[in-house]
Structures are given as C-alpha cells and as structure tokens.
Design brief:
The complex is a heterodimer. Chain A is an all-alpha fold. In chain A, 60% of the residues lie in helices and 1% in strands. Chain A has 20 helices and three strands.
C-alpha cells in the first residue's frame, strides 16, 4: 500500500534544488527571495498586483475611450488582483513547485515522506506534505477563524442589545453578519472537519499518508488565503460585503467592491474543499490496509467518505454561482439583471444546490466523530453499524433533493414546494436512525463521562432540537410564516452550533492527546462544556420565539416589542463567548505543559490509538493488518488490527523495516 | 440490566415531562394576534407539530439521562466493557418505519393546510391589490376594480375586513419579502416577475408589515403597517384618498417614478 504514494520518478539523491523536505537552513536574503516561503510569496504577490494593473489597463486602452472613461479603474484592478495575488502567493509559498519543476523537465524529488514531521513551530508555516502536520495546520487555522467569527458575533449582539443604533451603522452591521457567517461556514466548520480527517483518517485506515500529499499541502494553503480575503473586505471601499453569506442577486451585483472579496474568497475555499475531498476519496478507496473492508472502516472514515462525495458533486455549483455574480458585476453578463432578460431566481437554485448539501457537509463528519466517541466512551460496539453507514449514504442521496425548501417563499413555481417538502421530511428518517442508534449504544454501556462524552451527549440533545425545528420548517404553511425570520436564526444555530460545533469540541477533546501527545485538564474541560451548553441554549432558544413573533433576521435594529428578549440574548451570548476562554486556556496550557499522554488513553480499538501519541513521523513501520470490526468492545479477545509496535525514534523510512519481527497484538482484549 | 424499578421511574418521569412540555407549549405566547383565517390554520398546524415533537425530544433526553444515571462508570469499572450488543433488526426497522410514517402524516396534514390557505374561498368577495417594493419602502396600488374609478396609488395599506385580498407584488430594484406576521403570510417580491398571495383578514386593527429579505442598508427600517377596517370605512378611505392630493394618483399601472417617491414616503414614516 505504501507504494501507492511513491512517485514514478527515479529518486535523485542530492538534488538540493527541490524545496520539499529541506531541513531549515540559514539562507542569505537573495536565497530567501528565491526559496519557497513568505519572502518569495511577498514579492510574487506584488507581481500579481502589477499584473492586474497591467492587464486591466491594456484591455481598457485597447478598447478605447468610447467604452471606458478611465483606463485605470480601481474596481477592475482589485477584481483581477484578488485572483492574481493569492495565486502568486501560493506559487511563492511553494505550493506548485513540484509541478513546475516537473513541467519544466527539471529534476523533481519524488514524495518519499522525507519532508514529514514538524520539528519547530516554524515548520507549521511552511508547505509540508505530512498529513499530520497538515491536520494540525487545518485545525489551528480553523480555530483562529472560529475566534474571529465569534468575536464578530459578540459585536453584533452589542448592536442588538437595544433597538435603535448603538455603535455601528446599518451597513457595517450588515457587513458583520455577512462576514460572521461566511467565515464560520467556509473557514471554520468545513475545514476543521478536514483537519481532523487529515490527521486521523490515514492512521485509521492504516495508510502512511494521504494519496496526494502535495495536493493536500496546496489545499491547506488555499484556506488562510481565502479567509484573509473575507476579513480584508472590511477595508474595501464601501465596506465589507453586506448581503449575507447567501449573496442573493441582484443585491450582490449592486454591492460595493467588498462583494468581490466574498465571491472570490469562496472560490479559494471551494477549491480547497474539492481538492481535499478528492484526496479523501482516493485515499479511502485505494489505501486501506489489508483486511480493512468497507464494513470494517470506523464510522468516521465512512462519514468523511460520504462528505467527500457531497463536496465533490456540490461545491462546483457555488463556485458557478459566484462566478456568475463576478461576471455580472465586472463584465455586464446580465445573468441576473431582470431588465435585460436575466433570471433572479436562477441564482438561488444554483446557490442552494450547493448550500443545502453543504449543511450535510458540515454535519456528517460530526456524526462520524460522535460515533467514535460514543462507542469508545460507552465501551460498547456501535449499535446497528451497517445502518449507520447506509444512513450516511441515504443522506448523501437525499441531500441533493431538498434544496428548494430554502425557497418556499421565493416566488418559484408553486408545485416545486410539494416534492421538496416530502423529501425534506423524509431526510429526517436517516438522521433519526443515527440518533436512535447512538442512544441504543449508550444502553447498558459503561459510560465514561469525560469532556468529549459530555459534548457528545450535549450534541444529542441540542441537535435533536435543531432536527425538530428543521422538520417543522418542512411544513410549508409554517415555513411561509417564519421563513427568513429569527426562527431560522435559531434553527441554523441549533444545527451548526448545537450540532456541528458540539461535535467539533467532542473531537478536539477526544483526539487532543493523539495530536499533541499531551493530556488536557479534565476539570476545565467540564467547565467549558457546561458553560457552553447552558449559555448556548439561553442564547438561541429565545430566538425561536422572536421569529414566531415577527422579528425578521439580518436587521441592525428592530421594533421595541422585541427589546427585552434581545437584551437577554445579548447578555447570554457574551457569556457564551467568554466560555470559549476556558477552552483556549485549557488548550494552550495543556499543549505547552500538560501531562504526557499515553498511546491509548481511552482504550480505543481503532488504529490511530495503536501508535504512539503523537504518532510516529511515518505512522507505521509495517502496514497494519485488519482482522475485525472497529468497535468490538466487550467481545472477548476481539482485535481490530494487528501492527508491529513502532519505535518512538524518528527517521526510519517506510519500507526499511522489512526484517521486523511479526506483528504483535495491540488491540485491547478486555 | 437496569432494574425494573428504575425503568418504571424513568418512564413515569418521561410521561410527566411530556405532559408538562405540552401544557407549557400552550402557556407560551408564541404568536402575534391572529388577524386572518390563514393564521388560525397555521397556528393549529404549529401546535400539532409541537405536540408531535415534545414526546420525541423527551424520549431522547430521557434515554440520555437514564443512561447517565444507570450506566455511568463506577469506581472499579475502569477496565470494564459493556455487553457486545451489535444491533437489533426489529428495533431498527421499528425506528425507521414509525418516524417515516409520522413524518409523512405530518407533511400530508401540512399540504391540507396549505391547500386551505391558498385556495380562493367560496362566497367571499375578492379584491386585488398591487404591492411594489423598493429600497426601502412599500407602496400599494388599488386598481379600478377596487376603487370603481381611477386606480389609486398610496403608501398606506388599507384592507376591507371580510374580503379576500389577492396581492400582486413587484419589485423595482432588489428582492424584498412582503411579510405580515399577523396574517402568518409572506412571499418574496422579486424583480422581473410578479408574485402573489392571498389573505383573508378577519380581525379589525393595525398590524406590522415587515420586509423580511435583506435588501440593503435600510432593510431594518423597511417596516410599514396594514390597517384592517370595515368595508364601509375602506370605501370611505378610498374616496378620501381620491379627493386629497397627498397621494400619487395616476391612471397608469406603472409604479410611481422612483425619484419622486422619497419625498412622499417621508410623510408616511416607517409605520
């Protein structure tokens, strides 16, 4: 299996020209400017801006004054620069080096994993092809965006504490909630799951790395680029994009230039998603260890397999919708200009054809995490394993048949509502199967109620509420009343905060020892859970009532009849935000100086727990052999996988341990 | 296995919680006043949904709390595992089929409500009223069929009680949504097409009209009011509007000139 990732190119020892895997060296300034890294990225970005300037000037000048009043136009330059500069950054940081060397016929270095591992914190700021390093990069970057997005939400709640204007104008407020949603959807929830999966899945399936390590590195680096674009939109003339993360036309085609930051930032996030999803699909299909049949895969692997299918099929649609917006804005294509024969509703169909499946992209990996946590912490096999896997696939298929339930009041043809309402109700069935199966897994188990388990149980509670309000919204007459009201705000936060974020916290606490080699503070973890759980519900539950009462969402001010509840919500939201400080403190201090973690603190059977914490640089000396299911807790003598213990030392190359003693049974037999 | 006594305790607690939850749902002041026949149907649907939802939520929470109570790890059980139960086909079929039947039942019921709310009621006279949304106010057109004379344009919305009103809605710029929470009705107002809905106001009074789709920096203040009045008062109001010069009255069905509008709407204010 290890040979799958070997490049067909011959090994060329001693070619120092390749950037991959070079150990950090002291370089002169000239060499720094030529070597992949931030120095090269900086001047290359300037080159990208210069290109944008030159291209727009050239096009405008050759078209002539009859069309363009000015040859130099800020918005035109900015639009092209927002494509060119990030691409040049990626070239500068070294994301394309291998392919450029290869295309130019120059010596390339095959991916021999010699660049694996991070030895100082600086290594996390370089192109790195190690799935574990990339997993940490993804996770930490995403949590940075969580903090930013959360802070923006807290600013919004100050503005909403009382009716009338508090401290920002309506346009700034509209920008805040638009960036809040875009950052948290595209740069926190979606990528943080990719981060966990990057770290854990190759280990879980017994693979030495992802199938395409260079693509993996590139897909990570697209992320900070896109996220920075979203945040920088606040500096754009006219302010940040202020039409929500949905960017409905024709409002978005009329927006100031801040809109371009969204439309193009989404392209970078989307490209990152698609690359990662392809990588997961190929990795999961082709790189499973011998004996790891599909029905011996841990459910986290199943969940990411299903998610990746969704991403690959759906994400091109949001890319298209935003390209339409760009073309309308910049080049007058009139896709959505009703006065020129454009169709406004078409945008919504294309947008939601991605953005409804995106809800499952943001949920299915969390389902996988919950399955891992609940099985291990209940010390029982997952109840109804096959139905858990099939229900994921059912959600993938049904997820593509419900998009227009976001459009029940949009003015589309009335009949479309009927089949979409039926599929929307039916998609609750596979989700219900999962909830009931988790409950049955708890039954008669030996429940270890530590932090990750508390988050898993909290998730079951809040996500059930989010699911119930989702089913209510499938009922068309009810949806006609509350569509786009605060009821929707409550529902989406019960699904994405009470659902996705609870699973993310469960996953962080569950794999923290594996990723860092340290244990976190359990007492602080429990404080974090309870403060999050309580203030989450106090913040978002009252929003249901606001919506039913007639408060629209996306408003900077509101009728005085809603004042009391809004003040209460604002106070609770601040306490909810502050509870994150407990989490941050716990993570930072535990990572720096927490007690050393053993290889398998939770006595899990899946393969990632059979290697050291943190895992060895090359994962396995020998490819593991899978001999049983992943959750055979309580089955006497059950083993999931057999693998030779890996030496704690680093530096041994994959494949050199062929003379090693036969595999030793490591999985717990208790 | 947990003791029979514990299971009975949990079951009783669960049933009490269900009863309390449903009772509580009738105490909470969920909705604004009902000012249309459609509101009554929709509110009943909501209460049915809540009654169907409470037992499901209580079931989930009860099983979680019961498991925490009965199955939490006790000292000395650090290395103990639970029984290797892999599944139960009958149970899995049960919790696939029952929710599916429940959901299909609820969605069918919602279709009945939808049909009732959208059909033209027999024996009730219907008036057509034009609605135009633009950044950031509404204006209304009362066609000749309503005024009996020239069409009338106004920034005020008056509706006759006991009539069915059919709104024809158009936008002059971006998408808006014409929401009357007291009627439980809304629909987007989309540039390029005319959208519609039908309401049957049945309660006198003045109720908020809200733009419920983000339409730009003034969206929060794009609020107005609907006055439901007796038919005689409605006709009197129409006649008064035609006499007074304060509103834009033209024979054309075109919306008023956009440039001329803000001066007039300032006088109406954000109701």
């Amino acid at each position: 299996m290890a040979s799958t990732v070997q490049s067909p190119d011959p090994v060329r020892p001693g070619t120092g020209s390749s950037p991959f895997g070079d150990r950090p060296q002291r370089l002169g300034l000239g060499a720094k400017l030529r070597a992949p890294g931030f120095y090269r990225a900086a001047w290359m970005m300037l080159l990208g801006v210069a290109f944008a300037f030159g291209l727009t000037w050239l096009v405008r000048m050759s078209t002539g004054h009859t069309t363009f009043h000015h040859y130099i136009d800020g918005e035109a330059i900015l639009t092209v620069a927002l494509i060119a500069a990030p691409l040049m950054f990626l070239v500068g940081i070294g994301g394309f080096d291998y392919w450029f060397y290869w295309a130019a016929g120059r010596p390339t270095r095959p991916e021999d994993h010699s660049g694996h591992g991070a030895y100082t914190w600086k290594d996390y700021f370089r192109i790195n092809t190690d799935h574990k390093v990339i997993g940490v990069q993804y996770t930490v970057t995403s949590f940075f965006f969580l903090l930013v997005g959360g802070l923006i939400a807290m600013l919004m709640r100050i503005e909403l504490a009382q009716p009338g204007a508090q401290f920002i104008d309506a346009n700034t407020y509209n920008g805040l909630f638009s960036v809040h949603a875009s950052i948290l959807i595209f740069f926190f929830i979606i990528p943080v799951f990719a981060g966990f999966a990057n770290f854990v899945i190759p280990l879980m399936i017994g693979a030495p790395d992802m199938a395409f390590p260079r693509l993996n590195a590139l897909s990570y680096w697209l992320l900070p680029v896109g996220g920075a674009m979203m945040l920088l939109s606040f500096l754009a003339p006219g302010g940040a994009f202020a039409d929500g993360w949905t960017a409905y036309t024709p409002l978005s085609t009329d927006m100031p230039v801040g809109q371009v930051f969204f439309s193009l930032g989404v392209q970078f996030a989307g490209a990152s998603s698609i690359m990662t999803a392809l990588n997961f699909l190929v990795t999961i299909i082709t790189m499973r260890a011998p004996g790891m049949s599909f029905f011996r895969m841990p459910l986290l692997v199943w969940a990411n397999f299903a998610t990746s299918l969704l991403v690959v099929i759906a994400t091109p649609f949001i890319a298209a919708s935003q390209f339409f917006v760009i073309l309308d804005r910049s080049l007058g294509f009139n896709f959505f200009n009703a006065g020129a024969g454009g169709d406004v509703l078409m945008y919504q169909h294309v947008f939601w054809f991605y953005s409804h499946p995106a809800v499952y992209i943001m949920m299915l990996p969390g389902f996988g995490i919950i399955s891992e946590v609940i099985a291990v912490k209940s010390r029982k096999p997952i109840f109804g394993y096959r139905m858990m896997a099939f229900s994921l696939l059912a959600i993938v298929v049904l997820g593509f048949t419900v998009w227009a339930h976001h459009m029940f009041t949009s003015g589309m043809a009335a009949w479309i509502r009927i089949p979409m309402a039926i599929t929307t109700a039916i998609i609750a069935v596979p989700t219900g199967i999962k909830i009931f199966s988790w409950l049955a897994t708890l039954w008669r188990g030996v429940l270890h109620l530590d932090t990750s388990m508390l988050f898993a149980l909290g998730f079951l509670t809040t996500f059930t509420l989010g699911g119930i309000s989702g089913v209510m919204l499938a009922m068309i007459p009810f949806d006609i009343h509350v569509s786009a009201s605060y009821f929707i705000v409550a529902h989406i936060h019960y699904v994405l905060f009470g659902g996705s974020l609870m699973t993310i916290f469960a996953g962080v606490y569950y794999w923290f020892p594996k990723m860092t080699g340290r244990m976190y503070d359990e007492r602080l973890g429990k404080w974090h859970f309870w403060s999050t759980f309580v203030f989450f519900n106090l913040t978002f539950a009252p929003m249901h009532v606001l919506g039913l009462q007639g408060m629209p969402r996306r408003v900077a001010t509101y009728s005085t009849q809603f004042a009391d509840l809004n003040l209460f919500i604002s106070i609770c939201s601040w306490l909810l935000g502050l509870s994150t400080l407990i989490f941050l403190y716990n993570m930072v201090t535990s990572w720096r100086g927490g007690p050393r973690a053993g290889a398998n603190p939770w006595r899990g059977m899946t393969i990632e727990w059979q290697v050291s914490s943190p895992p060895p640089v090359f994962n396995f000396d020998r490819v593991p052999t899978v001999v049983g299911g992943p959750y055979e807790y309580g089955v006497p003598g059950a083993v999931h996988a057999i693998l030779k213990p890996t030496p704690a030392t680093v530096g041994a190359a994959v494949g050199t341990a062929s003379g090693a003693p036969p595999g030793v049974k490591l999985a717990p037999s208790e | 296995m947990p003791s029979r006594r514990a299971i009975v305790t949990a079951a009783v607690a669960g049933l009490i919680a269900i009863a309390a939850g449903i009772a509580l749902s009738y105490q909470i002041h969920w909705f604004p006043v009902q000012a249309s026949t459609q509101a009554k149907e929709t509110d009943t649907l909501y209460h049915v949904l809540v009654i169907a939802s409470v037992p499901i939520f209580v079931l989930v929470v009860t099983v979680i709390l019961f498991s925490v109570w009965q199955f939490h790890m006790r000292p000395g059980e650090e290395l103990k595992d639970g029984p290797p139960i892999h599944g139960n086909t009958r149970l899995e079929v049960f919790w696939t089929a029952i929710p599916a039947a429940l959901l299909l039942g609820l969605v069918s019921y919602s279709f009945v409500v939808l049909h009732n709310n959208e059909k033209k009621p027999a024996g009730v006279p219907e008036v057509q009223i034009g609605v135009t949304g633009q950044q950031f106010f509404w204006d209304y057109e009362y066609p000749s069929s309503v005024t009996g004379g020239k069409p009338l344009k106004s920034y005020q919305l008056y509706l006759p009680e006991g009539y069915t009103v059919y709104f024809n809605m158009r936008s002059k710029d971006v998408i808006h949504a014409f929401w009357i929470p007291a009627f439980r009705l809304q629909e987007d107002v989309v540039p390029g097409i005319t959208t519609h809905y039908r309401a049957t106001p049945d309660r006198l009074g003045t109720y908020p009209v809200v733009c419920n789709l983000l339409c730009g920096s003034g969206h929060s203040l794009m609020r107005s009011a609907v006055h439901v009045v007796p038919p005689a008062q409605f006709r009197a109001w129409l006649a008064a509007q035609e006499r007074s010069g304060s509103t834009v009255a033209t024979a054309s069905t075109d919306p008023p000139d956009r440039a001329a509008a803000p001066a007039t709407v300032a006088g109406v204010g954000a109701g």
